[in-house]
Write a structure and sequence with these properties.
13 helices; mainly alpha; 268 residues; elongated; 75% helix
């Protein structure tokens, strides 16, 4: 059997294992799937009137027009935030495999060495896509519309989401391999939830204090969010698209090299 065939076979087996593992722990899976939906409803119906003032709404009136405008504004941010919150599951799952000795056992078996990591990456990407579909459906149900986007723009938006998911997943896998236990992995991955909160997900970056704006503008989440807004809502994209692509490619390369190095290191 060729190396490619062995890699595909073993990676498929590990993917099936991870999907079955997710089914065996429904509480964690449901938490990862439902948290973004809860955040969407929270920011629309609880904080929406106040937060809409940051994008020019009148806030206090609670009018339908203001709510619709704010829903349109935050949905791209919530989609990207969904990715960050869901990939934390990859860090926890990988750390569980490490702490339980599973990865050490696989190192001694005649299987493709990278198949365990690939299984985690592909399984997490599939979970994230399921979360994005659920968040998208809820967003449409509460009033989100993207009537001006063409089929090509929708395809580009989907490609951006998949690429960003792959980037954060590789970083999360590295965090899981570097953590001594699942609790530490969860804590190490917290920036993936916190960074969207200091991005342009909920209010424009130019409404933030001047000293803080560069932090909000040039972190990975803001360029991806602004690119999605431009594709789905027709707003100006500017240089956000290439900054977002640069972040994605850089994080994928960094995460892959980091994860591979940690996985292949000799156990102590």
């Amino acid at each position: 059997m060729s190396t490619l065939s062995l890699a595909v076979r073993d990676s498929s087996t590990m993917l099936r294992r991870n999907l079955l593992h997710a089914r065996r722990y429904p509480s964690m899976t449901l938490n990862l799937l439902l948290t973004p939906i809860i955040l969407l409803l929270l920011f629309v119906y609880i904080f929406g009137n106040v937060m809409s003032m940051g994008i020019g709404g009148n806030g206090g009136s609670g009018g339908h027009a203001d709510r619709s405008a704010y829903i349109a504004y935050i949905v791209p941010g919530l989609l990207v935030m969904t990715i960050g919150s869901t990939v934390i599951g990859a860090a926890v799952s990988v750390s569980m495999d490490m702490s339980e000795g599973l990865i050490a056992r696989f190192r001694t078996m005649a299987v493709y060495r990278g198949s365990l990591i690939i299984g985690h990456v592909v399984g997490t990407v599939l979970q994230v896509l399921a979360s994005l579909v659920l968040v998208g459906l809820v967003a449409v149900a509460i009033g989100f519309r993207s009537t001006d986007a063409t089929a090509l723009e929708w395809l580009a938006a989907a490609g951006m989401l998949v690429l960003f998911t792959l980037a954060l997943t590789w970083i999360a896998v590295g965090m899981g391999l570097a953590s001594p236990n699942p609790e530490a992995a969860s804590n190490m991955a917290m920036p993936l939830i916190l960074l969207p909160l200091i991005s342009s997900a909920f209010i424009p970056a130019d409404t933030m204090p001047g000293w803080f704006q560069p932090i909000a503008e040039y972190q990975p989440f803001t360029p991806a969010i602004e690119t999605l807004r431009g594709l789905l809502l027709g707003t100006a994209i500017g240089n956000s698209w290439w900054i977002a692509l640069s972040w994605c490619v850089g994080l994928i390369v960094l995460g892959h090299r980091w994860s591979t190095a940690l996985f292949n290191r000799d156990p102590k």
